[in-house]
């Protein structure tokens, strides 16, 4: 009898232990499922802007959409030889009169680039200041393109003791405003288009003799609207092909500026960019090129039947060096 009671007690104890284990496991499983159900899902990572739409802030003669990061300091050397039309006489412009610009830029805050430079054009010095601001950066799922504003103001130091060109100092000023829109299509191809407005405070012109007693003043205009298109194709990680086209949209009564067609190569290192190219622009200032480009890429006939020779290209190069502080 005693053994039966002892066996019954042991059996009851086993049952209680089994129920306890089952209850504990069930509670833990429920708690785990409940915790999983109420946990907030991890937020998706924010989309990041596309990098390296272009390697340099310059695209031959035009500004690219790129605005470097805060603390970037840039030094530029730009050189334009003479037109190739004289052939071997001046070694295709390499020994002709050349134009040169030295410039410096700095990014005091993100998205803003400030610069100044000095240009020698035909023995005359041109001083300029510029500002560049990134309005939008191409971001997957958010912004399909990058948009940047670029502005330039230049002061002509050309001597004019008789005040033929400049009656007031403010007439020496010229201005350039541009909106640039670009998109990196893939790792190899980037394209951009831009619309610009150039303004000159003094309109150059000349007197043409109509008869022995009177003169007619032929003039340009104060403003020039223009458009441009540029593209880059990466051959390797450090070598690219560049193309550029600039088209003046405003018609002058005389001395209409010519469009610019340029093509060349770009070579990159971690801190340097070197561009070697051929194009029609030679004045190294955006508003001066837009308002006064005299190099004609295309031949054409004038209204009087006179042929104007085209192919007035020149060789040029840009060297850019970046530092980060």
Written account of the structure:
This protein has helices at residues 2-38, 286-292, and strands at 58-59, 62-63, 72-83, 99-106, 112-121, 124-136, 146-156, 173-184, 189-200, 205-209, 215-219, 223-234, 239-248, 260-268, 272-279, 300-301, 307-308, 314-324. The chain contains two helices and 18 strands. By secondary structure, the protein is mainly beta. 14% of the residues lie in helices and 45% in strands.
List key phrases describing it.
mainly beta; 12-stranded antiparallel barrel; two-stranded antiparallel ribbon; 14% helix
How many structurally independent domains?
A: 1
Identify the CATH class. Answer: Mainly Beta
* CATH level-4 homologous superfamily: monomeric porin ompg
Report on the biggest sheet: 12 strands, antiparallel, barrel
Structural class: mainly beta
| Run of helices and strands | HEEEEEEEEEEEEEEEHEEE
Overall spatial form? globular
Tell me the strand order in the biggest sheet. 3-4-5-6-7-8-9-12-13-14-15-18
Present the secondary structure layout.
Layout: H1 2-38, E1 58-59, E2 62-63, E3 72-83, E4 99-106, E5 112-121, E6 124-136, E7 146-156, E8 173-184, E9 189-200, E10 205-209, E11 215-219, E12 223-234, E13 239-248, E14 260-268, E15 272-279, H2 286-292, E16 300-301, E17 307-308, E18 314-324
Antiparallel strand pairs: 1-2, 3-4, 3-18, 4-5, 5-6, 6-7, 7-8, 8-9, 9-12, 10-11, 12-13, 13-14, 14-15, 15-18, 16-17
């Amino acid at each position: 009898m005693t053994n039966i009671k002892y066996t019954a007690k042991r059996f009851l104890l086993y049952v209680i232990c089994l129920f306890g284990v089952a209850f504990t496991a069930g509670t833990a499983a429920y708690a785990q499922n409940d915790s999983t159900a109420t946990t907030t899902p991890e937020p998706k990572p924010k989309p990041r802007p596309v990098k390296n739409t272009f390697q340099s802030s310059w695209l031959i003669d035009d500004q690219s959409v790129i605005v470097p990061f805060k603390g970037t300091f840039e030094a530029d050397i730009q050189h334009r030889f003479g037109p190739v039309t004289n052939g071997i006489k001046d070694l295709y412009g390499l020994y002709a009169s050349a134009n040169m610009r030295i410039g410096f830029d700095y990014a005091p805050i993100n998205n803003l680039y400030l610069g100044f430079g000095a240009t020698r054009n035909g023995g005359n010095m041109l001083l300029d200041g510029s500002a560049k601001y990134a309005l939008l950066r191409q971001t997957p799922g958010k912004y399909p393109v990058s948009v940047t504003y670029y502005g330039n103001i230049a002061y002509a130091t050309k001597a004019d003791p008789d005040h033929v060109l400049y009656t007031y100092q403010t007439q020496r000023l010229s201005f350039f405003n541009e909106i640039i829109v670009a998109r990196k299509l893939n790792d190899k191809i980037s394209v951009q288009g831009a619309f610009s407005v150039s303004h000159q405070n003094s309109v150059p012109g000349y007197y043409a003799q109509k008869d022995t007693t009177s003169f007619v003043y032929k003039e340009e205009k104060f403003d020039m609207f223009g458009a441009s298109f540029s593209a880059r194709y990466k051959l390797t990680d450090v070598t690219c092909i560049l193309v550029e086209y600039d088209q003046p949209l405003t018609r002058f009564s005389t001395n209409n500026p010519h469009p610019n067609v340029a093509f060349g190569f770009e070579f990159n290192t971690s801190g340097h960019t070197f561009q070697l190219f051929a194009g029609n622009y030679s004045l190294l200032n955006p508003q001066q090129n837009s308002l006064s480009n005299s190099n004609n890429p295309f031949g054409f006939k004038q209204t009087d039947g006179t042929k104007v020779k085209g192919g007035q290209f020149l060789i040029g190069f840009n060297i850019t060096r970046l530092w980060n502080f």
